[in-house]
Design brief:
With about 550 residues, the protein is of the alpha/beta class. Helix content is about 50%, strand content about 15%. The two termini are about 15 Å apart.
């Protein structure tokens, strides 16, 4: 008898793990992935059904382990391309999400425990709180994998982002998974028995969904008659991580070659990607510590001087910084520099650095990790301080660098500072993956809709593209090819969206509502009131008899 129970328990655990693997796979496939470079966005609405089913099925004692398991497996599959950069990344990123889900799954389980019949409402809110407060804040903020981003191709649906940011989209995407996960808590038999109880929440969702699509039909910006800004985005398809004089020379030759072709078509500005030219232009012009590198810098400045069109160039901006000891040392910024007629007009220095690869604390408890990263030829940057707004040809624009365009609130700040267009410069060559580059690009679509502004992306090998204020991808250059993209984007002025004005208000509202609901549920349980309390004493819901 005991052996039979153990075998049954083992079988049930294996079944739960299988459900979590299925959910992890569906989660990954709903984004751009190894099977589809554009992703299968309809899967986003259902990919978490197996996960929520496990949350309902599992005992409390199993939930922390399941959280760790799902966090690791889901991000190992979703971010598989990180391993192409360096195998160590799969030892860093998935374990971080294993830890986040160690916290998140118990919260989802608590919602189910406190509100057995309507817990899916609270679970949907908790999920968005996880995406915002855990995934998108702090030093380890990493916006890849927010389920709302799966819908970047569903243009009518994502227009509500100008009200709620991506968070409103995420809430509507996760809700069906939470609802169906609750419905099949005891298997398909329970769905057949209790389908009538789903009619009201399903009808309410359908009505809201229709309202969202209606808003998506009437809210887009009419760009006809607007000023069109003509740009040339150069994609030279050389990884700047390849260091040394030869690599820098090859990059300059490719950049100049493609720029010459683009300039013949009279763009108003030419854009080169993040660290497209690696040697610090201003530093080597002033100090000339390496004559061979200085010769490359001289050639570049002569090229820029020969062409009157403005150039925006991703570059290392080296500066002397005085230490507390009084000594001056060189520090480097990941920068975007605007040149006009060969002279520097203005510089933006990256505000939000990538953890582990661009910045790592030098505090003594983690200094050993910093030494390991340094030994792997990791180049740490100094953090910028000013959200620069450039101007060229009467157009005001800002230049979030690489993964800065994955953060809605940061990009919103540029528009509040006066930018009319977002010009993202990116290096995605290191991923060696079109899927990884597409995952990055999909988030830029939301920055356009959130603020009703055009977004352009110039990458060295990723997804170079132009996006209009309604999230429509106007033009795209094939990734991992050398070339340039020439096109025009509308310049929207004098328009402020609710998201631009209020920012990430929705997660805070959901946090307050979730906290109040959990507090109320706990009070009801302690006072012995409510349906859930009677069920816990007399008529507990059907569950797996071996749990």
């Amino acid at each position: 008898m005991i052996l039979a129970k153990k075998q049954s328990l083992l079988g049930s655990v294996l079944f739960d793990l299988a459900l979590l693997v299925i959910s992890s796979l569906l989660f990954a496939l709903s984004f751009p992935s190894f099977l589809s470079e554009w992703g299968w966005f309809p899967l986003g609405f259902l990919c978490l059904v197996p996960l929520f089913a496990v949350v309902h099925r599992a005992r409390w004692t199993a939930i922390p382990f399941y959280g760790i398991f799902f966090g690791y497996v889901s991000y190992a599959i979703f971010n598989y391309w990180l391993g192409r950069f360096h195998p160590l990344t799969l030892v860093v990123v998935p374990p971080i999400y294993a830890g986040w889900f160690l916290l998140t799954l118990p919260a989802l389980k608590l919602a189910d425990t406190l509100f057995p019949s309507r817990g899916f409402l609270l679970q949907s809110a908790i999920w968005v709180c996880y995406e915002y407060f855990i995934k998108s804040q702090g030093y380890l903020a990493y916006a890849y994998g927010i389920v709302g981003y799966t819908q970047y191709q569903f243009q009518p649906f994502i227009q509500i982002a100008d009200l709620t940011g991506v968070w409103g989209v995420s809430l509507l995407v996760v809700y069906p998974s939470a609802l169906l996960g609750s419905a099949i808590r005891d298997g398909l038999e329970s769905l057949r028995e209790n389908w009538r109880s789903l009619l009201a929440p399903a009808a309410a969702y359908a009505a809201l969904f229709a309202a969202v699509l209606l808003y998506g039909a009437v809210s887009p910006v009419d760009t006809s008659g607007m000023r069109q800004w003509k740009l040339a985005l150069v994609q030279h398809n050389i990884d700047p991580w390849r260091g040394g004089y030869t690599a820098y020379r090859d990059s300059l030759e490719a950049l100049a070659r493609q720029s010459e072709k683009a300039i013949a078509e009279a763009p108003e500005m030419v854009v080169w990607s993040e660290t497209a030219f690696v040697p610090a232009i201003d530093w080597h012009t002033r100090y000339r510590t390496d004559l061979q590198i200085y010769e490359l810098v001289r050639q570049l400045r002569a090229f820029l001087d020969a062409h009157p069109v403005p150039f925006l160039i991703g570059n290392d901006d080296g500066r002397l910084k005085r230490q507390e000891s009084g000594e001056e040392v060189r520090v480097d910024y990941n920068a975007a520099i605007l040149f006009d007629g060969g002279r520097i007009v203005d510089t933006y220095r990256k505000l939000h650095l990538v953890p582990f690869t661009e910045h790592f604390p030098d505090a003594w408890p983690v200094r050993w990790m910093r030494r390991i990263l340094t030994s792997m030829d990791t180049h740490f940057w100094e953090k910028g301080e000013v959200p620069t707004v450039f101007e060229a040809g009467g157009v005001r624009f800002s230049t979030p660098i690489c993964f800065e365009d994955t953060f809605g609130c940061l990009c919103r700040g540029f528009f509040r500072g006066g930018a009319d267009v977002l010009v993202n410069i990116t290096n995605d060559a290191w991923s060696f993956s079109t899927a990884g580059a597409m995952q990055h690009m999909s988030m830029a679509v939301f920055r356009a809709v959130e603020n009703r502004r055009s977004v352009v992306r110039s990458t060295n090998a990723g997804v170079t593209c132009m996006i209009d204020p309604n999230g429509l991808i106007l033009r795209v250059l094939p990734p991992f090819t050398e070339g340039y993209l020439l096109g025009s984007v509308p310049v929207v002025k004098g328009r402020t969206t609710l998201y631009t004005a209020w920012g990430d208000w929705l997660p805070w509202v959901l946090l307050c509502l979730s906290g109040a609901a959990i507090a109320a549920g706990i009070v009801l349980r302690l006072t012995g009131r409510g349906k859930w309390s009677r069920m816990s004493r007399n008529e507990a819901p059907r569950a797996n008899p071996h749990r």
